[in-house]
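Now produce a polypeptide, keeping tokens residue-aligned:
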Amino acid sequence: MNLITLKNKNAQEVASLLDIKERNSLVEMFSTLGLPHKMTEEYHYFDVKKLLDVEYKTLNYVPKSIEEGDKIEIVDGVVTKAPKGLRVYSEVSENVDMEHFDALYYLGHLLSPRVIKIEVDGDTHVEILHKYTQSDALIHYRVEISNQANRHVTMYENFETEEIKNTLVLYGYDMNIAQDSTLRMVRLQTMSGNAYSMVSSHKITVAKNASVVLKNFDFGGDQALQVLKVELGEHAHVDAGHLLYLNDDSKRGTASQIIHRGEHSTSKQVAKNILDGQARGIFDALIRVEKTAKFTKAEQNSKSILLHKKAYMASKPQLEIYIDELEASHGATTGQLDEKQLFYLQSRGISHLEARKILVIAFANTLIETVKDTRHQERIKNAFEEVFYASNKG
């Protein structure tokens, strides 16, 4: 399959190329938005055409019997393991946002009409491990997560690969955060060696008095973009943190929209970006406050450190406001490591490499330390150190 064949096609042509006989409204939405390209807002700084204009092999998505395990394992888009007592199953989804801004969100649902459903009961911790084993493949799947009212869930998301090359992963979440509940999602992804590229397109709906905490830790190289849409109800809250440490000639980051629909809703979005080599970091983030969202509080900030003269940060925090009764702020800064601090550390017998690491870790720690579980905190720090030393050999 070569996805570029969908470019500039009308709904009937898209349906024919994808062999889709139903779901006409999704086909219409995809064809109306059109296949993403360089001038598409959320893909402006991300070379999506390079990923789409490739001939990929397709996989058969046949549900397997799910073995009992200590975590949810999804291998090439199919669930293979899940903890006992957790409802994990495959089913055709009716939970599709018909006002999403991303065409690949609709393409994901068209390619994967049966989604992986995870129903979380009670207060619990869940780990999700994605494994990719196929080279030169298009791996596509979607995950739908729901929890119960007045419950509190923490989810840890990790990624592993075998010795693969040149694969494209299209996946994403549809999350429904129930009233008076909390869901924390901690995501750690290290990429390198052109094993795979990824576009993940998500939709999160946060109900009245509910809260979602999203912490993303993206390290290494290659190409990946997270496209995120969050809708907040009355007294709902989102706390989104994004930490990038990139090297080589990678392009990775986040394009997001946080939409305040309910009164007294609050949002906090913080991005910290550390770029080495010829890497490009992306933070293209919009907070929109609707007329119905009086007394909103919204905060958005991006801070970046460039470790190499060829590194580049595309930072675009934005506010779109339709009311006066609110508190809102946003900003972005880009700079380099403080030479005086580097000199001070080296004067105490610390090598230049270790001094750089100390300052970079200090910059990143405000996000890393928001992860409450010390075991996962250490996992994130170890992943960072591994990538840092790999990109600073010699």
User: Anything to note?
Assistant: The helical segments are 11-17, 24-33, 48-52, 103-111, 339-347, 352-368, 374-390. The mean pLDDT is 94.
